[in-house]
Predict the 3D structure of the following.
Amino acid sequence: MAGSADVFAIGVGQVPVGEHWELSIRDLAVEAGRRALADAGLARVGAVYVGNMLAPTVNGQQHLGALVASWLGQRQAEAVTVEAACGSGGAALRQGYLSIRSGAHEAVLVLGVEKMTDCVNGTTTAALAMAADAEYEAGLGLSFVAINALLMRRYMYEFGVPRQAFARFAVLAHANALGNPMAMFRKEVSVAEYMRAPFVADPIGLLDSSPMADGAAAVVLASGELARSLGRGQVRVAGSAVATDYLALHDRLDPLDLVAVRVSTARALGQAGLSITDVSFFEPHDAFTVMAVLCLEACGFAGRGEACALAARGHFDRGGALPICTMGGLKARGHPVGATGVYQAVEAVLQLRQEAGACQVQGAKVGLIQNVGGSGATAITHVLVRE
Amino acid sequence: MALQLPREWRWRQERYRLIGGRCRRCGQAFFPHREICPRCLGEDVAKEQFSGRGRVYSYATVYKAPVGFEEYVPYVVALVQLEEGALVAAQLTDVDPTEVQIGMPVECVLRRWRTNGPDGNIIYGYKFRPRLES
């Protein structure tokens, strides 16, 4: 069984991100999966990789691999769940990529799904805190938002950046979501609204935070040979890398330096034979505005302490030098945690196929997508290119 | 999720004595103790009981709490840099949220962390409170 040198994204599917009171986790997964398979023109795949974080705690359901595969008409397929906290979707994409590269399968389905509205808020908040260190962070009352708030406060202090400077990231994400029919918030926000919004964990306000949401997204990956035979060789996964770090902020020598982000970006671009100047658009893990800032700086898209100033000049807007959050990002498309990394892949494929509609980045050739687990403990970076 | 009693007991050295570690090769102090230095990856590390004195490295005020902490809202969490150099995540106590600043001197005290329901065990551990400069 020879491996495949090339991996192509040959089909995508997604459901709108939002509060789906009438749909269960399996309904969401099946819908996204069917759409992706239809888009690829394939009835069967060899394997299904499901990215999910919260189903065991919020939905009382483990074993999503077999559940989703069988309900999707893929009985007997290889199927497992892949978990890396909020990076679960990206981690599933990585497993799908490895599966094709190894030659184990000709075609696989990567599916991210999260159903967050099955519990009341406190339970979901506690479940999300499991992304952090249970014994030395979450168990002491540090919510996941609070951990990110510690990063934001320190950042403001070290680089002398006022809180208001972060608003630009929320404003641009919401502006970009206007054209995305799958986005949760198709509504613009202003800096004044950002400043008026209540705190979740000061200095993080409601408009610094991505929303809890339900969602599912799926991508069919295939070998070069199969992709070309199906006439679906437009988008190639040219780089794929994961790097990790300590879960807890206090274990990192410099909490504002996201080492895993830096390393996984360099690895993925290196595999693709590209540099950051080749990137047409970037989908960062903007779970909080401060995470967008820290990821941009760790990737090298901005110098340390400089991301907010670049944003203020329109650098990251759709018409700017490096468009980010092109379809709303986590902030405005919504952040169904374990599904997010796959939404990013779907959006990148749409951009590279020139099918992003009102969100289209003109001349998009190279998309960098980055899904982060926890506050930087897992960073999964993929490079997708238009052939 | 309710933490179980053996888990709480297992952490008594860290939680009630603030036992961390220090690397004999590069000098880095860290909390909690571990066998491999997070800075130089050296394996010659020793346990060390920290003084409990330090300064606020960063802080945040929690308005939306996880299950089990709702009654304390709003409360302040912080990263504290101990005099020995290690960072510790903890709640601040005996302080008004508006008084807290980065660099503020603090000291470790033993406080209630949470109660596991009306009939559950009460969990105690370290928090930090403001201290006067000496």
In short: The radius of gyration of chain B is 16 Å. The longest strand of chain B covers residues 105-115. Residues 5-130 of chain B form one domain.
